[in-house]
Structure formats: C-alpha cells, structure tokens
Amino acid sequence: HASARIAERVSIAPYAVIEEQAQIGVGSSIGAGCYVGAGVSVGADCLFYPGARVLWRCRLGNRVVLHAGAVIGSDGFGYAGDATGRRHKIPQMGIVEISDDVEIGANATIDRATFGITRIGAGCKIDNLVQIAHNVELGADCVFAAQSGIAGSSRLGKRVVVGAQGGIAGHLSVCDDV
Q1: Which of 1, 67, 88, 134 is catalytic?
Q2: pTM score
Q3: Does the annotation mark 171 as catalytic?
C-alpha cells in the first residue's frame, strides 16, 4: 500500500502484501506470499518465511522469525450462548504483541486478544503447529514444542517449557522455571 512505511535494506519477495499504514523495520525480509496487515508494526531484522501472516494492528519487535504458514493475530475462539443455547461470536478486537528475538514455527498460530493484548515475551521459541490462544501472556524465554498449546487468558512466567503435545488449560497462571 502506498501509505506503508518501508525502512532501508528491506527485502519484499513476490506476491507479498503490505497493507495500509504498516511499518517494516530496517533490514527485515518479507518472504513470497506473506501478508502484513493494516497498521502492523514489524521491527528491525525480522525474517518472514513464505506464507507467514500478520493480521491488522499486531506489533512485532526486532529479530522476530516467522516460519512458513505462521499466523499472528487471528481471532480468538470466543463465543457466548444465548437463551436458546445458540452460540454467537464475541468480537476479537485486541492485538498480538511479540517481543524481540522470538521465533515462531511453521503453521503455528497466535490469537489476538478479545480486548487488550496477547503478549509473547522476549526470546520465546515456539515450534511448528503450536496454538497460543487469545489474551495469553508468555514471560521471557518460554519454549513450546510441536503440537502444544495454551488456552485463553493464561499467564506463564519466565523460562517455562511445554513439551510436545502438552497443553495448558485456560485462565491459569504458571510461575517461572516450570
């Protein structure tokens, strides 16, 4: 988009889409077929492999790596039942904020907050096929192995490790070094 701000030494591969008011930091590389939504902020020296997606208004720090197919900022899984038991979607209006030096694996997903911010702390490493739900907050240097996930509104301290196919239920708090 003409209103996007692209810094120096940025590489944008064919078929990538950069929407209005997006910002791409110095030395970042946006792979083929990537999508950077409206109002997204991408820091310096980030690397997006082909097909990565960052949806509207999300904020990424410096040296963030998104592998192929990663999706940042999809709607959280929020529904409310009415008197008849029918479920209706709760609008997901928040964002995702990813700190510096985070790596997110192929086809991993991080949902936007219902309101406010889903936060990924500095230095976190998230493997392929991991699901991070809406309103989650990860402390610095957490590690998630393949096919693991965390349900909405949970908070993890620093250096938490979740093994392959491990899960954390919603609305829980986990202290440092677990």
Answers
A1: 134
A2: 0.97
A3: no
Distance CA 113, CA 94 (A): 4
Three-state SS at 59: strand
Distance separating alpha carbons of residues 133 and 114, to the nearest angstrom: 10
Beta bridge mates, 100: none
Whether residue 24 contacts residue 16, with contact meaning beta carbons closer than 8 Å, is answered with: no
For residue 125, what are its two tokens?
A: 């490493």
Q: Which residue has the tokens 């791409």?
A: 24
Q: Encode the chain (178 residues) as per-residue pLDDT tens digits.
A: 999 999 999 999 999 999 999 999 999 999 999 999 999 999 999 999 999 999 999 999 999 999 999 999 999 999 999 999 999 999 999 999 999 999 999 999 999 999 999 999 999 999 999 999 999 999 999 999 999 999 999 999 999 999 999 999 999 999 999 9
Q: Which amino acid is at 121?
A: G
